[in-house]
Design goal:
Largest sheet: 8 strands, antiparallel, barrel
Shape: globular
Strand order of the largest sheet: 1-2-3-4-5-6-7-8
Helix content: under 10%
Distance between the termini: 14 Å
Order of helices and strands: EEEEEEEE
Radius of gyration: 13 Å
Number of strands: 8
Strand content: over 45%
Length: 110
């Protein structure tokens, strides 16, 4: 499936919430959030689901899971999303092994 687009993301965990934007397409994930963190990763289309991971590189602060992350800290994010993930509904992803709710809304095709 060609999901190549820019998506806004809103997320919340036990210790807070945030937002950002991410490109998802051509097997790649590239994005940033309100804290200045960078997201770089990849995915495969498996059985009509996007299964993959991304590395969050911190600009400093805290994860929404409550974990402090000094600048430069790298955190693994794992996801398994349906092809309709860009519909603004919440999905559970794993951030450093902890569940975080994320909603993606498609901004536009790229």
């Amino acid at each position: 499936a060609d999901m190549s687009a820019l998506y806004s993301m809103k997320y919340h965990g036990v210790a807070g919430e945030g937002h950002g934007s991410v490109y998802i397409g051509n097997g790649k994930v590239v994005g940033t959030d309100v804290t200045g963190a960078k997201y770089i990763g990849s995915y495969n289309d498996l059985n009509a689901r996007l299964v993959g991971s991304a590395t969050l590189t911190s600009a400093g602060g805290f994860l929404v899971t409550g974990q402090p992350i000094p600048p430069g800290t790298q955190v693994k994010i794992e996801f398994n999303l349906g092809l309709d993930f860009g519909n603004g509904k919440m999905n559970t992803v794993t951030v450093a092994g902890q569940p975080v709710q994320v909603a993606f809304t498609k901004v536009g095709d790229i």
